[in-house]
Amino acid sequence: MTLKILAGTALFLLLGYGGIHSQWPARLGLDGTGVETAEQALREAALARLSDAGIAWANVTMNGQKAVLSGTAPDAAAAEQAAAVVRRSVWAGGYVGGGITSVDISRVRFETMQDAAPPVAAPFTWSASVIDGEAVTLVGFVPDDRVRLALVAEAESLFGEPVEDLMQVARGAPEGDWTRAASLSLAALSQLETGQVDATDARFSLSGLAVDDAAAERAREPLAAYPAGLTITVAINLVPDGLVEGQPARDREADEPVAGE
């Protein structure tokens, strides 16, 4: 009898949890919208609550109902405070309360960390990628946290999507306006359906798929203003009509040098 009661209770809790979280976009008042729209609503609510609390250092990205905090906090206590604000930004928070179920602070840096010089990256590598115009990832080394946050914000603005930020601060950036080069590369990448920017020291490359010739041309336009001392090569393919997943695209450009050399 006891086992039946326990089994029934477990089933009730499981069904209740599934009912809450399988319909979480609708519970945000976003009936008929996708998960991406619901994630954006959660992010905006979290940023608004952080602003109300006077917490200016924190940035928020969403992975479903999980919030990821980044930025440089004064100390660990400040990071925990920001996490608590974000968790409660929509309803009570947590796995039962819905809204934002959990907050990841593993990417938060602390001001005390800045006392030690960052490591030297040799080579100084960086990359940005986009898949199907949605999944945007930034990886590699940047000169400082200011540049890191600026690139994340710019990517979110260009792509209209949350960005997965896997960048780290390091010394060893090449001479020249590296930040400007990375920014222009992001602008070019945003015109591609799927693509990647790779940088090794002063050499950048852009490759990917454009939906048509006009999109490919738009991708090249920002690169005309590439800063002196830094170079970029471009390899853009066009997506064929009726492209089947896994089918190679037609080659239209290959290792075409662009301004900046």
TrEMBL record:
It comes from the Bacteria. Residues 59-90 form the BON domain. This is BON domain-containing protein. The lineage of its organism: Bacteria, Pseudomonadati, Pseudomonadota, Alphaproteobacteria, Parvularculales.
